[in-house]
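Open question from group meeting: does this chain pack into something compact, or does most of it stay loose? Before anyone orders reagents, we agreed to write out a predicted structure and look at it together. Recording both the input and the output here so the notebook holds the full record.
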Amino acid sequence: MEIRRRLTTEGTLVVETRAHQDSPWNPSDPKNALGYEPAFSPTWEAEQAAAHRIGEDGEVLPFQPLSFRDFMFYEEHNIAAARGYVTRFRPHLAKVAKGFETLTRTTFPPFRPNRLWYRQPTYYMGNAATIVPSGTPVTAPPYTQALDYELELGFALNAPLLNASPAEAEEAIGAFVLLCDFSARDVQIPEMNSGFGPQKSKHFLTSLAGTAVSAADLLPIWPTLQSRVMINGEVIARPDARKARWSLGQALAHVSAGEQLYPGELFATGTITGGCGMEIGRWLQPGDQLRLEMDGVGVIEHAIY
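Structure tokens returned:
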């Protein structure tokens, strides 16, 4: 089941659902569609939606996230992104790394994730207040010269969790949504080296597709879903969601240990392997038209200014 919200000309939010892409949209109660009662008041949500209304049909976020945590599931993404980072920002180290990998036929050790990543799911807290819908014009913040996209799969809770098992945690996933985690790469590494994780490099903007999909449709098959990154109409990458280090249930169970989680909280897998420009040396530039797709989940489009 697909879920979307629209802002009417009267300024009220309407939740709609449909069984599949060829079906008509039908009005629905928010609790029935999302599986939980939204935490925010209808008036406040309508005000937030009005600030980000896109298009003549009044498309807005499919739900208003209560919070946002972003995991890192993919080792291959981390390695390729690290290689792309040094290629642009530390070319002398890139030469050393290339020499090491050529001689040893193994990965340059600093390109691998931190040792903690292999022992438990790792994540950062994002900024739920700067999440916008697909279609929003995107401008790089003034402090970066390295704007990047990241194709990720988002998942939202529809039930509370506390000290959950992986199976219990997975049952609390209510919906999936395609997510783009915009990043300022020249700012990100210095911030992460501070020991406090990403800050200005991540918190300025995240976007969601205009539709969400009920979890029951995708839970068994999400790693096999096909994705594409297109810039200016050309497919430049086909991210691969297989080989995740952790299951969704394991990741959520870890977060819920000693920490109460609530319906409406949003999580993401982190960049799917091949899902960011730094991995392939394609940086976003003014004038670009970005399109991210994941079959069965949704589409994100942005004009870059």
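Observations to bring back to the group:
The two ends are 34 Å apart (CA to CA).
The first strand starts at residue 2 and ends at 7.
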